[in-house]
Write a structure and sequence with these properties.
The chain has one domain. The protein is built from four helices and seven strands; from the N terminus they run ααββααβββββ. The strands form three sheets. The chain has a three-stranded antiparallel sheet with strand order 3-6-7. Helix 2 runs antiparallel to helix 3. The N and C termini lie far apart (92 Å).
Length: 191
């Protein structure tokens, strides 16, 4: 008698396993895909930040060769460094859109230095204060900034009603103070 009841119960519950599996697997996969999505964004942000930091540091040395190739401007050098280091996220098609190389005078860190503002004279706050005049936007003592701006990321798995394929944008930024000119160089290279 007992065996007939348990057989009937098993027959009546045979569809429950499929339903329970579906109810558990959908949230499980959503969590896994969410982790993958946010991990990818964090990876790209870290990658771009590290590349910007490396490029900013490289600009401060006034070295115009990279990976055995010579460059005519510091901007083209930084662009190539970002292309090489970003695993294809920054490439030759979008480098001009997302990458900026700016220089700032030490007394004005809010407005990028331009050729129209040259020569630029400023007074440092040393003891005693000294007036200095710079002739180049990338003169020693100025600040170099490498920026990745408005880099878009579309979600791998858009979720209608929650994230319907809208992209997010993020960026990276690194700054460093330009060092002295290398021996034998009388003026900095073209920015």
């Amino acid at each position: 008698m007992k065996s007939k009841i348990s057989v009937r119960r098993r027959r009546g519950q045979s569809g429950n396993a499929v339903l329970e599996g579906a109810l558990i697997l959908l949230p499980f996969f959503a969590i896994i895909l969410g982790i993958a999505e946010f991990s990818m964004v964090m990876f790209i942000m870290g990658l771009l930040q590290e590349d910007a930091r490396t490029a900013a540091r490289y600009v401060t040395t006034y070295n115009m060769t990279y990976n055995g190739a010579g460059f005519s401007t510091q901007t083209s050098l930084v662009q190539q460094m970002m292309i090489d280091g970003s695993l294809g996220f920054i490439n030759t098609n979008n480098v001009n859109t997302y990458l900026q190389l700016n220089f700032y005078f030490p007394d004005d860190l809010t407005t990028p230095a331009t050729a129209a503002r040259l020569p630029h004279t400023w007074t440092d706050n040393g003891h005693p204060p000294q007036t200095q005049t710079v002739q180049w936007v990338n003169a020693p003592g100025n600040v170099a900034e490498v920026r990745v701006v408005n880099f878009p990321w579309n979600w791998m798995v858009p979720m209608p009603g929650f994230m319907p394929g809208r992209s997010i944008t993020f960026g990276a930024e690194a700054v460093d103070v330009l060092q002295g000119l290398p021996v034998g160089l009388t003026q900095p290279p073209t920015p």
